């Protein structure tokens, strides 16, 4: 399910979401990193669409949203989207449409600098920048994502904050980093992150041989419980950080979550149905 805005009740957010449609658009397979758990198997660009083809696909999105009487939210990603020369031209094209409400960028953060920040700020419908970290410390993160990637990601987060851009973190859980959940949340708070999402490792692509570090069902439930408990604590503290708990398996925890459906603030919502085919689609680089 696509994410409603913080502070909106579950019933209201659900009705709002039914008027929206979310697209995750992988505009390139190219990437400057080779994270060990990456779901991509290839990093070539031979099947990528040109900017003209991307704009043609965008026109199809506009027509579809208009026909369905929905508003669009689009997250542009890769690969690493900041590698693509088409990223900012496409973003500018998308935001000209009345059918598109919000644009996000999902990135590893390592290419965000004083030059790219100006292009990012120029996107008038920019909603957030999401950066991936896979450890609360350089040792843990860089073992997975590559040397010096932690420092570069943190520098990017600070630069985004200095420029008033909403930031989110993505963290992929497995046996090699789940013990750092609370440390990561502390880090997110200290770096003034707005939103934090936890995913579980799915061994495919580059990560196909990592079955041995997948969390067991019991370990995953324990990790989700710790995340949920900390999310509730930060909600009570009125923390700026929203720990997003809308992944389906969060509903397995012994809490009310969204099941009563009555006026639950977004920061308290827990568990949700899969959104594929209901209010979201994912596009690959070849269209």
Spans of 5+ residues with little confidence (pLDDT < 50)?
Answer: 1-16, 257-264
CATH hierarchy: architecture: Alpha-Beta Barrel
Q: What integer value in Å does the Rg equal?
A: 18 Å
Overall 3D form:
globular
So, the CATH homologous superfamily? Aldolase class I
State the name of the first-level CATH class.
Alpha Beta
- Total DSSP helices: 8
Sheet with the most strands: spatial strand order: 7-6-5-4-3-2-1-8
Task: Give me the CATH fold name.
Answer: TIM Barrel
Strand runs, count: 8
The helical percent reads 25-40%
N-to-C series of helices and strands = HEHEHEHEHHEHEHEE
Structural class: alpha/beta
Number of separate structural domains: 1
Tell me which oligomeric state these chains represent.
single chain
Distance between the termini: 22 Å
Rounded mean pLDDT score = 87
